[in-house]
């Protein structure tokens, strides 16, 4: 028994030694691998740092435009409303029961029907008048033949002149009756045509004031019809502004982060008795506008004068003032402090160390620093210069205070 226990203890100790040696061997292998991998990791880290340094040294891409001398007029913004130039309340020209009306939102082209009335009774009357016309024409045809026959008899002394005169009278009366019947038929045709209300231009049904089955009187409005493609802006300006406007003058219309050009079409030189403002109408030939939208219009309040100007997006507003960045011949940025003046459309007057033709950064200037290397890339400055609505308002307010 003692020998058995001794053997068991020896075997147990041998197993412990074997496990310990195996653990130490595995530990040594892992330590060797880590030592070999450390230089490679260090190389990668250094390469990554060098790559970052190299990227940070690259030229910053920017979009530039040139400072230009041009005539600008001081402007203010006035509210306006987009209206359709073609909008009508279409009435019924006759009385009757409404049988069909186009639904709101229906697109129709010129001459298409927008509503119909019951024309049963006028159609029956029209058929009666057509029959009367046929009868009168038949009677006139008979009298014409009788007149010719009597003329032949008179030449042969077989009839008297009195009979021919009587037939001539009857023929003249019959001719008048035919004319009356023809007028009645034409009147019926025009009346029946008015039982179908047709649109006078292309557009959509905006409002429906009557429903099928209702009785409508002559002159009652059935639908409101509008052309959404022919639009204009209605705005009201002061007497000071109207003296600087004339038909054909180009103005800028702004709303919802977009802007487009409009042309003054008409100026109503009769002011409102209460507001003392004058109405102007501006054609909107471009832009995705909708009738009923509220917009703002840039209108002049002074005479134009020649100034050095840049687009609004060139300005960088900071607590220490207004500045812009100029790209020099070495493709490095130069920070120039400027003072702003009058605004006109997308452009604003600047006063500072800037000359006409200087390349001014308009995109990428938010994080630009003086002396930084830049790379001029092509960009759609026209779209960029169409200053966004909310941004315009904030910039304009700040600029006016600084100037």
Q: Layout of helices and strands, plus pairs?
A:
Layout: H1 2-56, E1 60-66, E2 68-72, E3 75-84, E4 87-91, E5 96-101, E6 107-108, E7 113-117, H2 120-155, H3 161-193, E8 196-198, E9 203-208, E10 215-216, E11 221-226, E12 231-237, H4 239-242, E13 250-255, E14 258-267, E15 278-284, E16 294-300, E17 305-311, E18 316-318, E19 321-327, E20 333-344, E21 347-352, E22 359-363, E23 374-376, H5 381-385, H6 389-402
Parallel strand pairs: 1-23
Antiparallel strand pairs: 1-22, 2-17, 3-12, 3-16, 4-11, 5-7, 5-10, 6-9, 7-8, 9-11, 12-15, 13-14, 13-16, 14-15, 17-21, 18-19, 19-20, 19-22, 20-21
Looking at CATH, which topology of the largest domain would you report?
A: conserved putative lor/sdh protein from methanococcus maripaludis s2 fold
User: Radius of gyration, Cα only, in angstroms?
Assistant: 46 Å
- Domains counted in the coordinates: how many? 4
Helix content: 25-40%
Structure classification: alpha+beta
Q: Average pLDDT value?
A: 82
């Amino acid at each position: 028994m003692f020998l058995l226990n001794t053997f068991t203890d020896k075997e147990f100790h041998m197993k412990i030694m074997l496990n310990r040696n195996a653990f130490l061997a595995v530990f040594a292998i892992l330590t060797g691998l880590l030592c070999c991998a450390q230089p490679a990791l260090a190389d990668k880290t250094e390469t990554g740092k060098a790559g970052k340094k190299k990227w940070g040294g690259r030229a910053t891409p920017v979009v530039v435009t040139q400072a230009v001398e041009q005539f600008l007029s001081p402007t203010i913004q006035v509210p306006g409303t987009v209206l359709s130039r073609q909008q009508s309340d279409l009435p019924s020209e006759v009385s009757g029961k409404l049988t069909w009306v186009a639904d709101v939102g229906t697109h129709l082209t010129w001459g298409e029907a927008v509503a119909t009335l019951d024309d049963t009774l006028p159609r029956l009357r029209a058929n009666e008048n057509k029959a009367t016309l046929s009868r009168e024409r038949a009677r006139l045809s008979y009298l014409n033949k009788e007149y010719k026959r009597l003329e032949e008899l008179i030449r042969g002394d077989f009839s008297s002149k009195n009979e021919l005169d009587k037939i001539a009278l009857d023929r003249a009366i019959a001719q008048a009756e035919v004319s009356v019947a023809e007028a009645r038929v034409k009147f019926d045709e025009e009346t029946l045509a008015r039982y179908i209300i047709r649109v006078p231009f292309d557009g959509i049904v905006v409002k429906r004031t009557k429903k099928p089955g209702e009785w409508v009187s002559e002159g009652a409005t059935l639908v409101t019809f509008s052309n959404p493609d022919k639009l204009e802006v209605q705005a009201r300006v002061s007497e000071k502004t109207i003296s600087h406007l004339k038909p054909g003058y180009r103005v800028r219309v702004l709303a919802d982060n977009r802007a487009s050009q409009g042309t003054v079409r008409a100026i109503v030189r009769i002011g409102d008795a209460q507001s003392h403002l004058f109405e102007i109408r501006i054609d909107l030939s471009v832009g995705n506008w909708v009738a009923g939208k509220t917009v703002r219009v840039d209108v002049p309040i002074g005479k134009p004068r020649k100034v050095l100007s840049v687009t609004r997006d060139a300005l960088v507003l900071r607590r220490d003032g207004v500045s812009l960045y100029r790209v020099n011949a070495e493709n490095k940025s130069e920070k120039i402090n400027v003072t702003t003046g009058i605004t006109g459309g997308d452009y604003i007057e600047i006063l500072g160390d800037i000359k006409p033709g200087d390349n001014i950064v308009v995109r990428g200037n938010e994080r630009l620093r003086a002396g930084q290397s830049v790379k001029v890339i092509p960009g759609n400055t026209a779209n960029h210069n169409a200053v966004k609505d909310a941004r315009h308002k904030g910039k304009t307010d700040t600029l006016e205070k600084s100037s």
